[in-house]
Design goal:
The complex is a heterodimer of chains A (173) and B (168). Chain A has 8 helices and 2 strands; from the N terminus they run αααααααββα. With 173 residues, chain A is an all-alpha fold. A two-stranded antiparallel sheet of chain A has the order 1-2. The longest helix of chain A is centred in the middle third of the chain and has 17 residues, at 85-101. Chain A is globular and about 50 Å long. Chain B is built from 6 helices and no strands. Chain B has helices at residues 4-49, 53-68, 76-95, 99-112, 118-133, 137-159. Classes of the chains: A mainly alpha (173), B mainly alpha (168). At the A-B interface, α1, α2, α5 and α8 of A face α1, α3, α5 and α6 of B.
Chain lengths: 173, 168
């Protein structure tokens, strides 16, 4: 795993990469239409595009992964055999969002830098052939483990929102 | 001098009185704000624990009450707390399948402030979900996309180490 990036150029590069990965409203609408047309509001039986659409809508817009969505992405979208390069780029973006939702911005940046570097071919373009897509990083697995409490898994977004809410309220007291 | 002196004294005393009134007013506003935030905290706790429809009804009543008793949203912090309360209220209403009421609450929250905050992104994401549930994918996509763009702004702030306005 790469070290946490510290150079300003890397941060700028990350931001530019992030900007290029935001889906347009039309893309989102189209993905959602596909999902609805394919199988009502259920995941089963959906096309890959439709499943990606659900991922886009439910995950990216909230900047978080619910347990179900996380599973959905690991199981369905992360597999290189069914994810074309353009979609895999978006998947990286999802990962970053998830880490940020956990308050792990440096780790999110590190994941991006690492994945980007490991996915570049000699011409400098992104390549996501079947053997080049990286395994879930150690940071991601640690982040997952962090949110498993004695009461079972809790939604990381809810956890973070509760902490954030309390911190804002403390300022009023 | 005899004529002016009493006048000057009166003005000085009035000034002292005003300053004291202002201090008392500030202290009273701060105390009211503190008491209100304790009640907000309690309403959130009730909402956190609500699992059944009946428990959610109790939480919904508590959330509505603190929203009614809210101080004027003079600061970004209070504004954020109010939008966040509206998000939680709308979410509880969605869980109780009261979709139209939830959309009304979301609208109120969104109209309260336009700044890109986590509270606003949450309201938009929830609005998108309700639209989805109502079979309105176009509206859902627009709301969710707006939430997505806010998250991008928040990300950039985080990368630049900038504090959110509600935390300043």
């Amino acid at each position: 795993m790469a070290n946490e990036p510290s150079k300003p150029e890397e941060w700028v590069e990350l931001q530019q990469l992030g900007e290029s990965l935001v889906p347009t409203p039309e893309e989102l609408a189209e993905a959602r239409m596909l999902a609805v047309a394919a199988d009502g509001n259920q995941h089963a039986g959906l096309s890959e595009d439709a499943r990606l659409g659900l991922g886009l809508l439910r995950v990216a817009s909230e900047g978080r992964l619910s347990r179900a969505a996380e599973q959905h992405i690991w199981d369905e979208l992360a597999l290189p055999k069914i994810v074309p390069a353009a979609k895999a780029e978006r998947f990286m973006w999802f990962e970053r969002k998830w880490l940020i939702a956990l308050g792990m911005v440096p780790a999110a940046a590190a994941v991006l830098v690492y994945w980007r570097a490991s996915s570049m071919d000699q011409s400098g373009s992104l390549s996501f052939e079947s053997n080049t897509f990286p395994e879930p990083s150690e940071e991601l697995l640690l982040a997952q483990a962090k949110w498993v409490t004695s009461n079972g898994e809790r939604d990381p977004f809810e956890q973070r929102m509760t902490s954030y809410r309390l911190a804002v309220l403390e300022g009023l007291e | 001098v005899r004529r002016v002196l009493p006048l000057l004294l009166t003005i000085a005393l009035a000034g002292v009185g005003c300053a004291r009134d202002k201090q008392e007013h500030t202290a009273s506003v701060e105390q009211a704000s503190s008491e209100w935030s304790q009640r907000v905290r309690h309403a959130h706790e009730l909402t956190d624990k609500a699992r059944s429809e009946g428990e959610r009804r109790v939480a919904i009543a508590a959330l509505r009450q603190v929203l009614r008793d809210a101080p004027p949203p003079a600061t970004p912090r209070v504004q954020w707390v109010l939008q966040d309360l509206q998000f939680r209220l709308a979410l509880a209403l969605v869980d109780n399948k009261e979709h139209e009421s939830a959309l009304t609450v979301v609208e109120q929250g969104l109209n309260m402030a336009q700044e890109p905050t986590l509270a606003r992104a949450n309201l938009l994401a929830l609005q998108g979900k309700v639209f989805e549930l109502q079979g309105k994918p176009g509206e859902a996509a627009r709301a969710l996309h707006e939430a997505l763009l806010i998250n991008e702004v928040l990300l950039e702030r985080a990368l630049e180490g900038e504090a959110e306005p509600e935390r300043q």
